# Entry
Amino acid sequence: MKLALGTVQFGLDYGVSNFDGRPDTAEVAQILETAEKNNINLIDTAIGYGNSHNVLNDHHVAKRDFNLITKLPPLNKAYFEKSDVDHYLQYIESAFEELGADSLYGVLFHQSADLLKPGVEAIWQRLTALQSEKKISKLGVSMYANADCKQLLSLYQLDLVQLPYNVLDRYFEQAGWLAQFRQRGIEVHARSIFLQGLLLMESDKVPPYFKPWISNLEQISKLAETFNTSKLVISLAYVLQQKAIDHCVVGVNKARELTDILSAFENAIHIASSDLPDLSVDDLALTNPALWP
# Structure
């Protein structure tokens, strides 16, 4: 199954289209059951996602048919001091306990630039040691469009990268990095495939900040009409038809939203990539949520 379950919504009030806040315990249970029944066995989380680790542990995900990926929090300074290294080593050890897991599918740096900062070596050495002990399967980074991919690939043997990719944001494909990752055997997970739900919103519900790009958003609606389908199907198709992407991370607040995505998945896989026009927008003010107000 190419879909993976993102869990930022389990620990934070997240998403420009999220008006309901975090799902309660019963809803999380239904989401996880829906995922499990439909062969979604990869869960993406992070230390920075509020209490999502503990929420997942409460639902015993490590003892079920799920592979877990977590991310180390960003370091908001130019280099790792000894105290920072100690904190990060503790983050790593605590992640296993918080998730109730004996092993993890992946551990990523949430900010790829952290791997290029002085002092990070001790943290990477600990991670590779845990990988040698079979406690971590894959090591890697979460990337944005400004990531120094060339330097990262020259310095590290990355197993896994997570990056933004959607109908409006195809930077990593168009810059040639997806092809390079594939050539190197690096697993690629796409996030932001709905751009926090923005790509699925009706035009009259779009927040004022996004009005300069309303015509770009309406192009998705027009394309959906052409295919006699939904914007959800179209948004999924752009990612699912990209062969260099191994998994698409989707986050939901309700189980029925995941059910809708699964139904759309079955339709999206039948849309040929050659029938999907290039609607990408080269503007980080739109495609990078970190720059949104």
